């Protein structure tokens, strides 16, 4: 296609030459990938609802709200983007013919940006919440409510949505990408495209950096508290469970998203984007939406305690013995007082 005035912007030549090639992918791969992710997130959502109904800890209930927002985001992201990709491989439709006004392409691009940024921003928000809960528990307990927690999730969605809408205002642009099954923002030397690419990659990388920094401090603080003189006065089972889940969420997000974010950052500077590499990194980032829910399914407190009992079977026996000894001592004291 020629880059002329009659060519819609989303179909014009970009930094990566568009190639209509429906044979590049298989519908079975996309359908399996999407179905697995949807089922995983659905199971995780049921697990979170059950955990929320059983939990008596305020801090854990607030953390579960963030996890619920993350599950809903991952589920909807797979549902929306997967529907476009699967329909393309089934029908081999050419969007340039059925969508000359770029409505579908813009919506697909907005969805890719929105559902890509939300997990990273939510991960950073959860890291902030746990940092405050562990390092400033008294200040947090008086300021944080369930309504405020829900508002924070909504603010993350609103912020990511505002960023995804920027190309529609002229700050950046969405373009169809090879093989024709998806649209994404353009990576080029044009000022607005370059600025949007830089914005997207920086927001993602900063979110990951904030998560790593705050989670590291929270883990160190939690270890100190658990080993401190008040370790027998404060139960830390919930805190340990939440930090294990949060560390795994951060690790998966870092592994899945950093290659794409760094590549976008480098390509926006050098304008050396390759559609093969972008497609590979996008698929790698999409794994985050499938792996996330298994963290909530597998790494619950009950399972962590079961693993601990397998590795240290005497721990629970010693704990039970200590409880029996304390009970016997209390009984002897009551007997002496009666005598």
Automatic annotation (TrEMBL):
It is a multi-pass membrane protein. The keyword Phosphoprotein applies. The keyword Glycosyltransferase does not apply. The chain crosses the membrane at residues 27-50, 62-90, 110-128, 149-174, 194-223, 244-266, 278-299. Residues 40-296 form the G-protein coupled receptors family 1 profile domain. One of its GO terms (biological process) is positive regulation of cytosolic calcium ion concentration. Keywords: Cell membrane, Disulfide bond, G-protein coupled receptor, Glycoprotein, Membrane, Phosphoprotein, Receptor, Transducer, Transmembrane, Transmembrane helix. GO terms for molecular function: thromboxane receptor activity. One of its GO terms (cellular component) is plasma membrane. It is found in: Cell membrane. It holds the Pfam family 7tm_1. This is Thromboxane A2 receptor. It comes from Nothobranchius furzeri. The gene is TBXA2R.
């Amino acid at each position: 296609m020629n880059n002329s005035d009659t060519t819609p912007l989303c179909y014009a030549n970009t930094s990566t030459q568009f190639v209509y090639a429906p044979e590049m992918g298989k519908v079975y791969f996309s359908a399996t990938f999407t179905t697995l992710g949807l089922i995983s997130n659905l199971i995780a959502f049921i697990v979170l609802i059950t955990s929320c109904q059983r939990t008596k800890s305020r801090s854990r209930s607030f953390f579960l709200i963030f996890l619920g927002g993350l599950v809903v985001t991952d589920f909807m992201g797979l549902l929306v983007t997967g529907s476009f990709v699967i329909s393309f491989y089934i029908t081999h439709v050419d969007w340039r013919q059925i969508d000359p006004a770029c409505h579908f392409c813009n919506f697909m691009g907005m969805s890719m940006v929105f559902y890509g940024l939300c997990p990273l921003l939510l991960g950073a928000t959860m890291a902030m919440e746990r940092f405050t809960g562990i390092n400033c528990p008294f200040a947090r307990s008086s300021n944080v409510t369930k309504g405020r927690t829900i508002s924070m999730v909504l603010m993350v969605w609103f912020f990511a949505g505002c960023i995804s809408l920027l190309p529609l205002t002229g700050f950046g642009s969405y373009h169809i990408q090879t093989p024709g099954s998806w649209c994404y923002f353009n990576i080029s030397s044009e000022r607005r495209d370059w600025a949007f690419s830089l914005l997207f990659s920086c927001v993602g990388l900063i979110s990951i950096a904030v998560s790593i920094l705050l989670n590291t401090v929270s883990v160190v603080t939690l270890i100190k508290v658990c080993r401190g003189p008040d370790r027998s006065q404060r139960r830390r089972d919930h805190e340990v469970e939440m930090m294990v889940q949060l560390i795994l969420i951060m690790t998966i997000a870092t592994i899945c998203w950093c290659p794409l974010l760094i590549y976008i950052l480098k390509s926006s500077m050098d304008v050396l984007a390759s559609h093969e590499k972008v497609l590979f990194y996008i698929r790698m980032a999409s794994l985050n939406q499938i792996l996330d829910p298994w963290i909530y399914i597998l790494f619950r407190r009950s399972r962590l305690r079961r693993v601990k009992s397998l590795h240290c079977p005497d721990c629970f026996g010693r704990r039970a013995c200590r409880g029996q000894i304390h009970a016997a001592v209390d009984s002897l004291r009551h007997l002496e007082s009666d005598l």
